[in-house]
Every structure is written in structure tokens, then in C-alpha cells.
Amino acid sequence: MKMNRLKDMKNNSFPKVTMEEWVEQAEKALKGKPVSKLNTATYEGIIRKPVYTENDKTNASKQLIEKSDWKVSQQLYASTSFEELNAQMKMELESGLQSIHFATYPSTEPNALLIKDQTDLKKLFNDIPMNDIALQVHAGASATTFINALIDSGMETKNLQGIIGADPVGELAATGRLSQPLEQYYDEIKSNIEWKENKAPHLKTVWVQSNAYHNGGANAVQELAAVMATAVEYLQQLMNRGLTIGEASQEIAFMFPVGSDFFMELSKLRAARVLWTNIVEAFGGDEKAQKMTVHATTSMFTKSNLDPYVNMLRSTTEAFSAAIGGADSINVDSYQQGKDAFSRRIARNTHYILKEESFLNKVEDPAAGSFYVENLTNQLADEAWKLFQELDKLGGIVEALRTNFLQDRIAEVKEKRLKDVQCRKKVLVGTNKFANLQEELNWKICTKPIEENEHAPVKVQGIQPLRLSEAFESLRYQAKVYQEKQGTAPKVTLINLGSLATHKARTDFASGFFQVGGLQPVLSPSFEDAKEIVEWVSEQNITGYVCICGSDDTYEEMLNAALMAVNSPNRKVLVAGLPEAGRQKELQEIEVSDFIHMRSNCYEQLVKIHQEMGLTDNEA
Question: Tell me: the pLDDT tens digits for 352-374?
Fold first, then answer.
């Protein structure tokens, strides 16, 4: 009997369902609305559909993800001494680190190491077996200072693997200036290549960085186009200096930050390979020349100083994207972007969770064949190619930066991202939603604007880096300083109308709304009539902001009476919810200051509240 049932189960299969049948059922669930209502637009201008099928397959572009594993990289940050960094590296190499990664002078990247000569280099690499690990050095506009220190140190470099890479155009985009003409940087790159051909043949000396664009708010299409235009600039300059396409293309490595949009970011890395293949092929490069070296790093743009443990979760999904996207090496930053051993260990072990427990290093190109991912990869490649062609028509990446063409395009996307965060359309957990007011804020908001240099021989408008969380961090810090000065947290009193069941939804919404601005909600009891409100309010010392919370039904019954009970010259009254326009006008005439609701610009309303409560008098 059991055998027969098992045989029947094996012979069973799910009935085939057509797309038309799926749409019919979906529209029933949507109560007659078209399935297209489920479409969403990305920052790239790409429309995401709710379902993808074989009909969405495009002419798949050639993919070159032929391996599944990646090197465990972790960026070093400037410390008090090279001796301390040396000890840190030794400990981390024993604990799973496979690649030494840092930025160095003359790079202007924050936390770059100031390595100026052989003495510094010897201290940093003392007793570290350099033949067994990969070196990843981002040297900013020029790698010459670092390479000269390497030569003077007498270190054996024949078997040295990795990248000692310059990216003068990337540095120009990030800072807005260069200290010498671009032609001189290109000559230096050629000179460094001549050195490495004899002394360090396994190194790459050009490292195209996407940081400036990504951290400035660019979308994936803009990142890809800018990076490819930069790489083409280097190809042309190196070929003009006597290199073949094969030699020039294999001198270049790429670095992409990976953000929190899981599918977009993994498709970005896959699309990069498509674009690079097409570019090198157009220059006449063979299959070997088309190979691409991609380093990925978790994004600074997505991280927050608020509720910092959430950064661990963000970094995990970003590393997951990078692994599936086919990165050759990945840097997972620590959750506090700091130097402490614990947070760096957690970041390093993220790799090994993905490798050893999730088996991502056992499958080649695991996203291949997904209708959605393949479709998204090819849409990204197509759109990036169009923008790349626009940059090319302008005269290339440098001219696109000189004319502000690229900066202006990126600024449009950045403003949309920031607006979405302010309105909480884009959720940052622990920052603009689900705030933890009990956490210790041991940091201070500080911004480092791009420095101007009137005498720089090459100047453009630098792309100012930012993090999406900065605006809400500023509010929280202001509230913290206020609390330290006043001895009490800034508060908003919530007046709850009706039973708990009827007001809870808006009470919870309002509580969360104020908490992300560092404002402590003080909840009243559940009131059934206006007399109770009058009695309770008379017993409290309520000043400042009051927010009334209830259902639409209780508002009809009690809202006007509640407003009369709480109105006072020393109070501002808000209402949770968005009445229709006529009712809003009525309520404003009886002293309602504003309404908070799902479509509010949460940040702008909180800024106004902070100003009126005197919180903005505190430096942030």
C-alpha cells in the first residue's frame, strides 16, 4: 500500500499554468486592478515586474563567470603606528584573511595609510610572507610613491600577486582636482608597467574605482558607464604608449562597492563583465584579453551610525550579492567601519559563513539561467552602454566630468534617493524606521567637504560622498545633545482616543515617527470621552508638541472635543492621519499645526519640530 502511494506521488506533477491564467488569478486578488500595478521603477529607470518567465529571456550576452570562489579581503585603516597594523595583519592572516587591502598616499581616501618610504613599508610588512597572499593597494592618482618604496625596501616581488593600482580619473572624480596633468599620470603608469614586467609580473597597476560615483548616489547604470569610460580612457592611453590591447586590458582591475538592492547589485557585477567583454573585443582583444578582475566591497553609502549592529546584516546581504555576482575578491567592512578586533572578526567570518555554511563557493555563476537576473543583467548592460556612448560623444570620461554632465546626472538620482529616505519610502532599519532610543550615541556628526585648490592643474566639480542615513543621524545627535544639556529627553505626548484596538495602529505609527528624530513619545491612557482627556491633561505638565491618535471613526466622534481639551498657547497639536482636504482646513482653523501620515516627508516635519523645540540650537 505504501509503495503504491509512493509510486503515485512520484508520478504526480504540478499542473502547467499559463501566464494568462496567472494574470487572471492575480487580478482577482488585486480586486480588478491590472497586474501592472505591481510593477516598480528602479533608480536606473528599469521597470521591475512581479514575475518573469521564459518569454523575458533576452539574447543572453556572453558571461565570463567561470569560477565560484573569491579571496577574503579586508581593508586596513590608518592606525597609530605601522607596528600595530603589522600585528593586526598577522593575527588576521592566521584567522582567515587571504588578501591585504588598503589605500595609501597619495590617495585621498579617508583612512588611507601614509606610506611614503621604505621604512614605513618594512614596518608594515615585517615578517609577513608576501608570496602567500594577494596585495590590493589603492594608491589614488599615482602608484609611483608606493612602488618606489617597494623597490627601495629590497622586498622580493617576483611572485607578488594582486594589484598596486592607480586611478587618476577616479581620484579626479572623487576630489575634483589633480596635482599634475593627466598626461604625466599616464606616463607614470607606463613607467610602472615597465618595472612590473620584469620585477613583479603577476601584479596589475591600474585599479579603476567606482567609489566616487557609488558613494555620490549614482545608480548602477551610471556607475557602470563611468567605470567603463574610465577603463577605455586608460586602454587608449596605454595603447598610445606602445602596449597591445592584450597587455593594456590585463593591466586593469576594477573595484565596485555593492549596495543593498540585492538583485540590482549582483546584476551590476555581471553586467560589468558583459560590457568589458564587448569593449575589449571592439579593440581587437582575444578571449584572454577580455578576462576581467573584479574586486567588490560592501557599501559605505548604505551604512549608518545609528543602531550599528544592523550594518552587519546589511554587509551580509551585500557580500552575498557580490559573491553571486562573481567578484574575484570581496571586502566586508566591519559594522562600525572601525578598527576593533571584534567587529573585524565578525566581518571576516561573514565570508566563511557564505563559503563554508552556505556553499556559495561551490557553484559557478549561481544566478545564471534566472529569467529575472538574466533580464536585469542585460537591461543594465544595454542602458549602461547607451550612457557610455553619450560620454564617448562628449569626448570621454574626463570631458564628461569637466562639463559636469556626469555630476548633474548623478545629483538627480542622489536627490531622489534622499527624498525617498526622508519620506521613508526607502526604509533604513534603525535609522528612519524602528529607531532604538536606548542605544548609546558615542559619535558626533562631522562632514568633510571636498577641499578646493585653485592652483590644481586639473580641476572639475568633485562628487561629494555621503551616506543615506546622515540626515536622520543629525536629528538624533541634536536630540542627544539637548538631553545632555536639559537632563531629560525631548518629548511628544500622544493623546489616544478610543479603545486600544482602535487607536493602536496610529499610536504605533506616531511613536515610530517621532523616535527616528530622537523624540521620546509619552503615551496617554486610552480615552473614551473628552472629560477624561481634560482631567488627565490637567494633572500633567504638558508643553511643546502633542499628537492625537485614533481611528477615523473616533476622530468623527471625539477629535474636535479632544482638540479643545488639549489646546493651549504653550502646546502645538498634531494629528496622526490624513483627512480629506476640507476637513484638514477645518482642523487647522481650530489650531491643528500639522498632520503626520504615511506620505509625510518625515524628515522635513521632524526638522520643523526640532526647530520649534529649540533642538537646532545644539551643534550637530
Answer: 999 999 999 988 888 888 999 99
At the second CATH level, the architecture of 473-617 is 3-Layer(aba) Sandwich (3.40)
Note whether 345 and 473 are within 8 A (CB): no
Q: Where are the domains of the chain?
A: 71-405, 473-617
Instruction: For residue 427, give the amino acid letter.
Output: V
DSSP state of 516: T
Rounded to 5 degrees, what angle do the CA atoms 108, 396, 190 make? 60
Distance CA 124, CA 577 (A): 59
Instruction: Collapse the DSSP code of 596 into the 3-class scheme (helix H, G, I; strand E, B; otherwise coil) and give the result.
Output: strand
Going by C-alpha positions, the residue among 567, 508, 510 that lies closest to residue 533 is 567
pLDDT at 542: 87
Residues in contact with 95: Cβ distance below 8 Å, sequence separation at least 6, in sequence order: 345, 348
- Phi and psi at 102, nearest 5°, equal -160, 160
The cell numbers describing 15, all together, are 499542473
Beta-ladder partners of 162: 135, 203
Neighbours of 359 (CB within 10 A): 11
From CA 95, how far away is CA 116, in angstroms rounded? 29
Give the mean model confidence (pLDDT) for residues 198-209: 96
| CB half-sphere exposure, 480, CA atoms < 13 A | 20
> C-alpha dihedral over 268, 270, 274, 277, to 10 degrees?
110
- Find the mean pLDDT for residues 202-226: 98
Buried b (16+ CB within 10 A) or exposed e, 527-559: beebeebbebbeeeebebbbbbbbbeebbebbb
Give CA–CA dist 346/343, Å, rounded. Answer: 5
Length of the chain: 620
The answer to whether the beta carbons of residues 333 and 368 sit under 8 Å apart is: no
Helices 405-422 & 470-486 angle (0-180, nearest 10): 50
Please state, for a pLDDT cut of 90, what percent of the chain lies above it. Answer: 79
Is there a contact between 341 and 91 (Cβ–Cβ < 8 Å)?
Answer: yes
Quick: pLDDT tens for 9-26.
667 777 788 888 888 888
- How far is the C-alpha of 508 from the C-alpha of 549, rounded, in Å? 9
Residue 517 has φ and ψ, to the nearest 5°, of -100, 10
Q: Give one DSSP letter per residue of 28-85, joined into a string.
A: HHTTT--GGGG-EE-TTSPEEPS---GGG---PPPP-------EEEEE----S-HHHH
Handedness of CA 351, 354, 357, 361 (dihedral sign): negative
How many CB atoms lie under 10 A from the CB of residue 9? 8
Rounded to 5 degrees, what are φ and ψ at 67? Answer: -135, 165
> Which long-range CB contacts under 8 A does 184-191 form with residues at least 24 apart?
185/141, 185/142, 186/234, 186/237, 186/238, 186/241, 187/241, 188/142, 188/143, 188/144, 189/143, 189/234, 189/237, 189/238, 190/238, 190/241, 190/242, 190/243, 191/144
Q: The domain 71-405 is classified under which CATH number: 2.40.50.100, 3.90.220.20, 3.40.1390.20, 3.20.20.240?
A: 3.20.20.240
Supply φ then ψ for residue 584, to 5 degrees: -55, -45
Residue 218: alpha-carbon gap to chain centroid: 10
